């Protein structure tokens, strides 16, 4: 199915399939599996072996990497992460995405923008994807603490990685991968100068975390607090579109 064009008029084919396991996670799953088999088949310690076997299956599931159907509407900004929208707030973008960095490429403009925060639990897919297509202008890693990722101050105090993408029309969009209470490593797949397509895999965060997206000025989100979003598929916003969207939890 990868690379196949599908649409809302019936073009294309779809069917359920087992999701692939990302190579970054295979070694962890195989190590857990080997240890569990040692306790089950060699040591004969079932009380330890069976829980470890379940743990190894959980590790493989954590690093699952399913295919996604990415909307190709030009002005659509797609979610970079699976999870729940936990915060929507007007904030200043991080300084690392604004200040001159010596690359010759300008950062985000100063002034408040809408930040959409997506919290990923350990049960969500943790492969992150590009919200828009374009050229990666910045990848800025900042070491920090490991507070719970759903806290507002996690955006400024936790280990995090800022990414800035510039579209071919010059529009820039920044987003931030934030490590959480359990997450201990942010793994990038891209570097400055790389070209990325909308919905392309750009990195992952191990074991629970959060992604913040800074929408361009004059753009409101099309998602609501508490909504579950899917990386590469859910449209977070349409460039230049504003307006209140309300929902009812039920």
UniProtKB/TrEMBL annotation:
PANTHER family, per database record: ARCHAETIDYLSERINE DECARBOXYLASE PROENZYME-RELATED (PTHR35809)
HAMAP family recorded: PS_decarb_PSD_A
Cellular-component GO terms for this entry: plasma membrane
A family per Pfam: PS_Dcarbxylase
The protein's name in its UniProt record: Phosphatidylserine decarboxylase proenzyme
Keyword Transmembrane among UniProt keywords: yes
Cofactors that this protein relies on: pyruvate
UniProt KW Ribosomal protein keyword: no
Pathway annotation from the record: Phospholipid metabolism; phosphatidylethanolamine biosynthesis; phosphatidylethanolamine from CDP-diacylglycerol: step 2/2
């Amino acid at each position: 199915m990868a690379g196949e064009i599908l649409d809302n008029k019936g073009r294309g084919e779809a069917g359920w399939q087992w999701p692939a396991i990302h190579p970054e996670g295979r070694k962890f799953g195989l190590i857990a599996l080997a240890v569990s088999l040692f306790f089950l088949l060699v040591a004969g310690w079932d009380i330890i072996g069976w829980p470890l076997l379940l743990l190894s299956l959980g590790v493989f599931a954590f690093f699952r990497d399913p295919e996604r159907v990415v909307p190709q509407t030009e002005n659509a900004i797609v979610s970079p992460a699976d999870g729940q929208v936990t915060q929507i707030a007007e904030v200043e973008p991080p300084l690392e995405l604004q200040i001159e960095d010596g690359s010759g490429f300008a950062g985000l403009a100063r002034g408040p923008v809408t930040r959409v925060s997506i919290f990923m639990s350990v049960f969500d897919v943790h492969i992150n994807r590009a919200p828009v297509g374009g050229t990666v202008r910045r990848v800025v890693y900042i070491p920090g603490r490991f507070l719970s990722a759903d806290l507002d101050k996690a955006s400024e105090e936790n280990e995090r990685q800022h990414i800035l993408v510039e579209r071919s029309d010059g529009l820039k969009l920044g987003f931030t991968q934030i490590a959480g209470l359990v997450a201990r490593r942010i793994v990038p797949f891209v570097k400055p100068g790389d070209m990325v397509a909308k919905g392309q895999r750009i990195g992952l965060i191990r074991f629970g975390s959060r992604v913040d997206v800074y929408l361009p000025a004059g753009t409101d989100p099309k998602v609501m607090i508490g909504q579950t979003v899917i990386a590469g598929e859910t449209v977070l916003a349409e460039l230049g579109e504003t307006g209140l969207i309300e929902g009812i939890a039920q």
